[in-house]
Amino acid sequence: MVEIGYQKEQIIERLKFDNPWWANGKIDKYYDEMPRRMYQEKFHALVADWSLHRSLILMGPRRVGKTVLIFHTIQELILQGVNPQKIIYISIETPIYTSNSLEELFLFSREALCSESADGFFVFFDEIQYLKGWEIHLKSLTDSYHNCKFIASGSAAAALKLKSMESGAGRFTDFQLPPLTFCEYIHLKGLDSLIVPQTGQMQDVEFQSFGTIDIDLLNYHFINYLNFGGYPEVVISERIQSNPAQFIRSDIIDKVLLRDLPSLYGVSDVQELNAFFSVIAYNSGNEFSQGNLSTLSGVKKDTIRKYIEYLEAAFLVKILNKIDINAKHFQRVTSFKMYLTNPSLRCALFKPLQATDDKIGELVETAVLSQFFPRTDSSICYANWKAGKMSGEVDVVRMNPATQKVLWATEVKWSNRYFEQCKELHSLLSFMQKNGLKEAVVTSIDKKGTKQVENFTLHFVPTALYTYHIGYNTIHNICDINNY
């Protein structure tokens, strides 16, 4: 509560400072000049939609551009004719605001605007996790002010998701802003001219939707994306790229591992959690079991499950479940693959990789899979089996959620070898035969084309192009067919 009059006046002055468009109709030039993310249109559509009386929760990992997305949305609302004095922005982490409820801050904002009416406002609460019990406050506002639109954002994604589900049923809509896809990286770097849209349809496989005018240049930027491409500030700043550990590790990883997760879940041994995450980051894309994770990290088995849950909730890692050669899920899950949600996290912890490094294949696979992770469906998995002397693996499989039949399969390779030696793809061909697939995708370094092996068709696509197209489809919600 505000107990002294001058405190209230200070808050009102700060609100005027944080909302310059009340006076001049524009967001700060610093934000306006920043490049727009490709999620801007979707987010703005939800903000501007008055048909459902729900508050909007913008969540995602640190430094992916949530605050910038908010300011760009504010500018778009103004350009579309919304009265600038009907738009309120409040960053809850600002010290002068922290002892006040959301409703008090809304009241002070209206007082600063000399507005007796509470109707028609767009109210943005940034970094809302800094207010204890934020979900109760926001639920109350949503129920009390039917003619206002409330939007909240936060970096403590784990807590936001949990509290949104617990308290916001029917009142909150979640919007997740992920790290940059490769498609967005190309766009933010101003390299769209490298990509050539193409057409062509083969049965239920969309073939060569995108080409490139220069595969060598595209691959150069793909390697840069693997090392530096997950966060807008890193992409546009060569200074940050010269020392990614200073930005990504200290401002993203360390704050999550050393501050967010301990405060949210009461983690007592933060150094152990940090070491556990480092093991996963170094081996991203490998198959794990709780046993070998315990051996590699020194963490007890009964603690590993909790740590994985925390890291998934913080959008740092993602588990991929497996099926067998017949596309059946295992009754008892003893192993799984684990990936970083963005490959550049590995670079920040260790060192940038070159195209010829031994570990580059795992990082390439991490990049491909990370393009899928923002999708809400859980139909992406991998196949791995051992039956007698036979064993095999297929990197990416998409299942039909309704029928649990295989829709398509992809083998991710950072190699041109299999373009000439197709028959060496024994695992993929066996999986296709068992599941009635006529076509599949195999990625390469720079080879593209179609190969026939017995009765099967293999579409070879450069990995960089495939990664671009997966990210494009994710952003545009084109998820029902394979991408080439």
List the SSEs and their pairings.
Blueprint: H1 5-18, H2 21-24, H3 29-32, H4 40-48, E1 55-59, H5 66-79, E2 87-91, H6 102-112, E3 122-126, H7 134-144, E4 149-154, H8 157-167, E5 172-176, H9 182-188, E6 195-197, E7 201-202, E8 205-206, E9 210-212, H10 215-228, H11 232-236, H12 238-241, H13 244-265, H14 270-282, E10 287-288, H15 290-297, H16 301-313, E11 317-320, E12 322-323, E13 336-340, H17 344-349, H18 360-370, E14 380-387, E15 390-399, E16 406-411, H19 417-420, H20 426-435, E17 439-444, E18 449-453, E19 456-462, H21 463-475
Parallel strand pairs: 1-4, 1-5, 2-3, 3-4, 12-14, 16-17, 17-19
Antiparallel strand pairs: 6-9, 7-8, 10-13, 11-13, 14-15, 15-16, 18-19
Helix pairs in contact: 1-6, 4-5, 9-21, 13-14
Helices, by number, come to 21
Mean pLDDT: 88
Q: What share of the residues lie within helices? A: 40-55%
**Which range does the strand content fall in?**
15-25%
Calculate the terminal CA-CA distance, rounded to whole Å: 58 Å
- Would you count the extended β strands for me? 19
User: Which of globular, elongated, flat, extended, rod-shaped describes the shape?
Assistant: globular
Rg, rounded, reads 24 Å
Oligomer: single chain
